[in-house]
Design brief:
Layout lengths: L1 H7 L14 E10 L12 E2 L4 E3 L9 E9 L11 E5 L2 E2 L1 E6 L2 E5 L15 E4 L9 E9 L6 E3 L2 E5 H39 L4 H21 L9 H26 L5 H20 L2 H29 L2 H26 L8 H89 L6 H22 L10 H19 L2 E6 L9 H22 L3 E10 L2 E8 L6 H7 L3 H12 L2 E8 L2 E9 L4 H12 L1
Parallel strand pairs: 13-14
Antiparallel strand pairs: 1-2, 1-4, 3-11, 4-10, 5-9, 5-12, 6-11, 7-8, 7-10, 14-15, 15-17, 16-17
């Protein structure tokens, strides 16, 4: 409401008008204690317009009547131009009569009252309502208890002149403010977007919050009804609260933009604003008006202190903002002088500088954004140079690492080849040696040739393992175990060892090719150890899948057994280390349990489900 009282307190100066125009004889007013629209019979006092009455706390009831006596100002028998009446605003609602005839009234003269404080209006005066001599305009003004009330500038004159004056006043009191709302809202949304995308830009966030409360403040000033509140007093309190919070956000935006660290001052600002909000929400209205004036002083003081800060830093962005704030200071001091000593020829500047200030702040924030982008681009260029340099250094390091990796890969391949030769060809040699040693008669040439062919086949398997890209996984576990079973069963039969084989009929999830080959090498090494060391009379081989993604191979004998831990720590068994290393490479684990009753070697592999494996498993379920 303070903004409304400010804007209607000074008239727009009327241009010179032709002769034979109305001449105001007197303006008086009187307070009517009560209601009902009855004109007071006494208490009339001369006034000058605009007249804004801020009544003391002890007298907060009643309505104010204004009486304007005037005459046409024409010579007898002369006819003048059509007349019209203009009023800048009513604080806060009312009605108008010409002589004893009704002319106009607000939409609501009871709570919730209409809000006409920033609504200029004009009316043509019909000739049939006018008298030849003295005419009287009656204006009744109403306001809730505690609020200021009064009448803005009233002007009589030629209809065309009054209409032009009304358009100018509408531009000042409403159009400029709506334009300010639009520009401020647009800048606020842009800054809010920037802050949401980059939270470190706190100045943009405070500016967005500041514009929200500024727009709300202007909307409450321009509103014609107190909706959504039930009383005009509650609406007025919202007007002051929004301005108070706007000033707080304005200070914080200024300090964040200027890089000022004022923790103690910020705490004091928070305490003052909390006290001001409590007064604005709960105190009688005259105290609320003082809160608004205090907020104005804080606003101007902040503008003043930033002039010194910008002079100290000499940064272009700070100097630009200080220039904008200097315009705020000059405008505020000018308007304060006009409000106290102004004449009809002067008007306030605040509303006219609103759009200009919004544009200036927009340019300032845009300039800062461009500067930030340029700094980011410069940083990116430096970063690209450093990245190129680091890339060259990394390339050299990677080249050396690649050479080391090649050497390591060669060593690994040699180790794998050693393990394969030991587990495959070495196992065959052990079997054949055992067969030759335990044979009661010398072997024939055909038998020796058969043993050599077995060694040749084992050597081919080693070669196939090294180039396993073209090898496929056996269709079933039975097919996987068939070559192994064929060779060792015949050997066990010749040595007098019973063997039993329990092999699953189908893969639940097929293992990979390398897993099949590796598992076969482990089985060959384990069975070769049975022949070489165990002196067993019975061997059992079991290959099952207890779970869909788990493959388990168990080889059990009833031999003499050994101490696995002692052998492991003594470092005597190359075969056990080879089997364990191979199981680990395949993604599984090897466990060996042994005692006087025999030995069990258990290999567990984790099988991964691939697209191909899913198809195989689906086919197995269907079959």
């Amino acid at each position: 409401m303070a903004l409304a009282v400010w804007l209607i307190s000074l008239p727009v100066h009327a241009a010179s008008a032709p002769d034979c125009l109305p001449r105001i004889l007197s303006m008086t007013s009187a307070e009517a204690h009560g209601s009902g629209g009855v004109r007071p019979a006494s208490g009339w006092q001369a006034v000058t317009l605009p007249d804004i009455r801020k009544r003391p706390w002890s007298d907060l009831r009643g309505e104010v009547w204004y009486r304007i006596d005037w005459e046409r100002g024409c010579a007898p028998g002369a006819t003048g131009p059509p007349l019209a009446l203009r009023v800048d605003g009513l604080v806060i609602a009312g009605e108008i009569h010409i002589n004893d005839h009704f002319l106009w009234r607000d939409a609501s003269l009871v709570e919730p009252l209409s809000l006409s404080w920033l609504m200029p209006r004009w009316w043509p005066l019909p000739d049939d309502l006018l008298r030849d001599g003295v005419n009287t305009i009656w204006v009744r003004v109403l306001a809730p208890e505690g609020l200021a009330q009064g009448l803005g500038t009233l002007q009589l004159g030629a209809a065309d002149h009054i209409e032009a004056s009304h358009l100018r006043r509408t531009w000042v009191q409403r159009t400029v403010l709506f334009l300010t709302i639009g520009l401020s809202s647009a800048m606020g949304l842009i800054c809010l977007t920037i802050w949401c995308l980059r939270r470190a830009e706190r100045a943009f966030g405070w500016y967005a919050l500041m514009t929200f409360w500024w727009v709300l403040y202007l909307f409450t000033a321009l509103a014609l009804t107190p909706w959504p509140f039930e009383t005009a007093l509650a609406h007025t309190r919202l007007n002051h609260v929004s301005y108070l919070i706007y000033v707080a956000c304005f200070c914080l935006f200024t300090w964040r933009f200027g890089g000022q660290r004022l923790p103690r001052l910020e705490r004091w600002l928070g305490l003052v604003m909390a006290l001001g909000l409590a007064v604005a929400l709960f105190a009688p209205y005259p105290a609320v008006e003082s809160v608004w004036l205090g907020a104005v002083l804080i606003f101007l003081a902040n503008c003043l202190q930033f002039q010194f800060h910008a002079w100290r830093t000499r940064q272009p962005m700070h100097l630009l903002l200080a220039l904008c704030y200097l315009a705020f200071l000059v405008t505020g001091m000018h308007d304060a002088y006009v409000l106290t000593h102004g004449t009809q020829e002067q008007t306030i500047w605040s509303t006219l500088t609103g759009p200009i200030a919004a544009l200036f702040i927009g340019v300032l924030m845009g300039t800062q954004l461009v500067a930030s982008i340029r700094r980011a681009e410069h940083f990116n260029r430096e970063l690209q140079d450093h990245v190129a340099q680091a890339r060259a250094e990394l390339s050299e390091v990677l080249r050396r690492e690649h050479q080391y990796a090649l050497k390591h890969a060669k060593l690994q391949e040699r180790m794998h080849l050693v393990h394969d030769l030991h587990d495959g060809l070495g196992g065959s040699l052990v079997r054949n040696m055992a067969l030759v040693e335990q044979s009661p008669t010398p072997l024939s040439n055909e038998r020796m040739l058969s043993l050599l062919k077995v060694l040749r086949d084992d050597l081919r398997q080693v070669i196939d393992h090294g180039s396993s890209a073209g090898v496929v996984t056996p269709a079933t576990p039975v097919q996987w175990a068939a070559p192994l079973r064929h060779r060792f069963t015949r050997l066990f039969d010749e040595l007098g060892v019973d063997s039993s084989w329990r092999i699953a009929k189908h893969w639940r999830i097929p293992p990979s090719t390398l897993q099949c080959l590796g598992l076969m090498r482990i089985a060959e090494e384990a069975l070769a150890n049975v022949i070489k060391h165990s002196r067993a009379r019975h061997v059992q081989v079991q290959c099952v899948q207890p779970q869909a993604d788990l493959l388990q191979l168990d080889i059990t004998d009833d031999g003499c057994g050994f101490d696995p831990e002692a052998v492991k720590h003594a470092g005597l068994s190359v075969g056990m280390r080879s089997m364990a290393a191979r199981a680990e490479r395949l993604g599984g684990s090897l466990s060996v349990t042994s005692g006087p009753d025999g030995t069990t070697v258990c290999v567990t592999l984790r099988v991964e489900l691939s697209a191909c494996a899913e198809d195989v498993e689906g086919d197995a379920r269907i079959s």
